[in-house]
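Q: Convert this sequence to structure tokens.
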Amino acid sequence: MILLGEGQVEQAVPDSARRIPSMYVDPVAWLVLESIEQAISHPLPDDVGVLVISTYATLATMTELSGTAASGRVSPLRFAGASPGGAASLACLVHGFRGPSLLLTSDPARSRPVALTVAQSWLSSGAASCVVLSVHTVDSGHAVHTVVLGADE
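A:
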């Protein structure tokens, strides 16, 4: 595989001023999108694969929902936004990526080799022309590191 681009975003608490009407998006998904946009140096084809590694994913939205569920009311928009896969799907919606997508909800150190194997498989099988791999970590704040990978020439 070859490296086609790279991006890095860090925030103490994920938040974005960007919005999509009639849609709630978890703050981590916005952070992943921002990192992906930094990594993309030119328009990509629509058969881009998207891989995200995060043990946190949409935990903030899930926690918020669990607090409101006791009242018997849950926001349908926030319920949809709480799906862990939302961390990967926002980039697909915004950029029209139609390749495979996957969220690995496990430790990045352990998951990175798995993600690279999946990316290599998608590239060699033709399932994706390139793969965006984003790794989300939470230490003193939230950070997302993204690489865009292509097949060897």
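The chain has one domain: 2-150.
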